[in-house]
Design brief:
With 428 residues, this protein is of the alpha/beta class. It contains 13 helices and 16 strands. One of its GO terms (cellular component) is cell surface.
Length: 428
């Protein structure tokens, strides 16, 4: 039994300068868990509801004082001095207290902050690392570290829309340790910065998640420049370093048409465009290749590209068990991008992860565009045996906090990097 002595919260700023929530959970034992939660810019329509103040005179309506007040008052009053068996019971109490389908009354940001702060406090109370606590929660043994997929170039909502798709990411495929993966990424990133300075005359200005964001004329150029940067760094594209893309198709989908690179494409035409990129570039993962509600065409996307690449769902799935079950039944994807704040509690995210595993999907644990310096995501990805982790680029302190935590965990555990799906070696 664990007894909560006090819950408190306050407003802080995320990596975009927007408010978010930080919470403290103090247990009767004296253990204290403090957590800050992220916020997304590229958000799916099915995500749990972030409670914002909507006061245009303060942070243009993005303030989180209401969510903070809900923790300090109603949630604290409901949970203080309660004997709680485990994370599942705590989260069930939070869901019952909110009593909405999307956490809109108390706010998913308030609920998640409490859920995570409680978990960190319990880990401290039990004297074990947070990653081990997360593993125990899922009944898992520690086995590998997640292989990073790391932002190189950004577009879409993360970079002012200079190109339609959201991200091109590096997959350090032949790296056998996290240390090696980050060193390889650094070399490619620097080559990319030099390349874009030469081609576009741009300094190393970065997008929300740290990716470089020069004025690419189209997606093809973005992909070709990524390959060139890999080769300039002295690596073999498709062997030492592969690519992944976050298409974020919902953001250029309107009235049944995809507006990509100044063309209007049907769902079938977009699938063929993605397939052509697979043939010509070393792509191993395609995220949100179709819009979040284009359900009828996701099975065709899966059939077309799954033999060569992961069909990864982000906005499409929203870490939502009901959407994941539907996608499994329809054979619409084979990988889940897991963002805990899309669903709002650790227990629900754990259920989403379990469903994906039962379907033999791969799981990528992901950060958000609006992040904080908190590093709990690294522990979650290790504890929940994430196949991949998506944090952002190797710039910006809120990203580096998580990469540095992964290096620390690697130093403690000596765990190997997870193999890429379908390979017997750690590299592709």
């Amino acid at each position: 039994m664990t007894i909560i002595k006090q819950l408190s919260a306050w407003e802080i700023l995320d990596s975009r300068g927007r408010p978010t929530v930080k919470a403290r959970c103090t247990l009767n034992s004296g253990a204290v868990g403090v957590v800050s939660v992220p916020s997304g810019a590229s958000t799916g329509a099915a995500e749990a509801h972030e409670l914002r103040d909507n006061d245009p005179a303060r942070y243009r309506g993005f303030g989180c004082r209401k969510a903070v007040a809900n923790i300090n008052s109603e949630i604290n009053a409901a949970l203080v001095d309660r004997s709680i068996d485990d994370q599942h019971e705590l989260d069930a109490l939070l869901l019952a207290l909110d009593a909405t389908t999307n956490k809109s009354r108390l706010g998913a940001n308030a609920i998640l902050a409490v859920s995570l702060a409680f978990s960190r406090a319990v880990a401290l109370e039990q004297g074990r690392p947070l990653y081990q606590h997360f593993a125990t929660m899922q009944g898992l043994e520690l086995s590998t570290l997640p292989r990073p997929t790391i932002n190189l170039f950004s577009g879409g909502k993360h970079a002012g829309g200079q190109v339609d798709i959201q991200d091109v990411l590096l997959v350090p495929a032949s790296a056998q340790t996290m240390d090696e993966a980050l060193a390889v990424t650094f070399a490619v990133y620097q080559s990319a910065a030099e390349l874009t300075l030469k081609k576009y005359g741009t300094r190393s200005l970065t997008a929300d998640e740290g990716g470089l964001a020069p004025p690419f004329p189209n997606t093809e150029t973005m992909l070709a420049d990524a390959v060139e940067a890999i080769e300039l760094a002295g690596y073999r594209a498709g062997h030492d370093v592969a690519l992944a893309i976050d298409v974020a198709s919902s953001h250029f989908y309107q009235d049944g048409v995809y507006n990509l690179d100044h063309e209007q494409l049907t769902s079938s035409a977009l699938i063929e465009r993605l397939a052509s990129w697979l043939r010509r570039y070393p792509l191993v993962s395609i995220e949100d290749g179709l819009a979040e509600d284009d359900w009828d065409n996701w099975p065709a996307l899966y059939t077309r590209i799954s033999p060569q690449a992961l069909v990864l769902g982000d906005d499409f799935l929203c870490t939502n068990p009901a959407r994941i079950q539907r996608a499994i039944a329809n054979q619409a994807a084979n990988a889940l991008l897991l963002k805990v704040n899309q669903i709002g509690t650790l227990s629900e995210a754990a259920r989403a992860c379990q469903l994906a595993r039962l379907a033999q999907w791969r799981v990528t644990i992901s950060a958000r565009s609006g992040e904080t310096e908190d590093d709990w995501l690294a522990d979650l990805a290790v504890g929940w045996a994430g196949d991949q982790i998506k944090i952002g680029s190797i710039t910006h302190g809120e990203r580096l906090a998580k990469y540095n935590r992964l290096l620390e965990i690697e130093n403690e555990t000596h765990l190997p990097l997870a193999a890429w799906p379908g390979t017997s070696l750690r590299g592709i």
